[in-house]
Amino acid sequence: MLLVMEESQRRLIFNHWPHALSKTFLFSEMVGDGEDVADPYGQDQAAYDQTARLLESIVQRGMSQILHHLGLESPPSPQQGQA
Q1: By the 8 A CB rule, do 5 and 32 touch?
Q2: Residue 42 Cα to chain centre, angstroms
Q3: How far apart are CA 1 and CA 20, in angstroms?
Q4: pLDDT score of 78
Q5: Which of 41, 62, 70, 79 is the most buried (most CB within 10 A)?
Q6: Are the C-beta atoms of residues 49 and 80 closer than 8 Å to each other?
Q7: Contact 13, 27 (CB under 8 A)
Q8: CB contact set of 52 (below 8 Å; sequence gap of 6+)
């Protein structure tokens, strides 16, 4: 499983390793979203902190979905995916 922050990263992986596309997801897809997580590179510390909080939230809310994609847990119920 590959978790990327931006759609452009997923396309880059597809261009180099097409067979990996089925295992490549946006972080935000783990919580039912499909939005990019903006890269804070070159910004101030507050931007890095905000991105870290967002990723932490996605991982916490999307853990059952992540485990499911890894084959370690049953798929989440619709109510779990919307926490």
Answers
A1: no
A2: 21
A3: 8
A4: 61
A5: 62
A6: no
A7: no
A8: none
Nearest alpha-carbon partner for 30 in 62, 5, 72:
62
Residue-wise pLDDT tens digits, 5-55 = 999 999 999 999 999 999 999 999 999 999 999 999 999 999 999 999 999
In whole angstroms, give the CA distance from residue 81 to residue 26. 15
Query: Please, which residues bridge with residue 26 across strands?
Result: 4
> What does pTM read for this prediction?
0.77
Fold (CATH) for 2-81: Rossmann fold (3.40.50)
pLDDT above 80 for 57: yes
Backbone angles phi, psi at 35, to 5 degrees: -90, 150
CA distance 47 to 30: 22
Confidence of residue 75 (pLDDT cuts 50, 70, 90): low
Q: For tokens 């989440």, name the residue.
A: 76
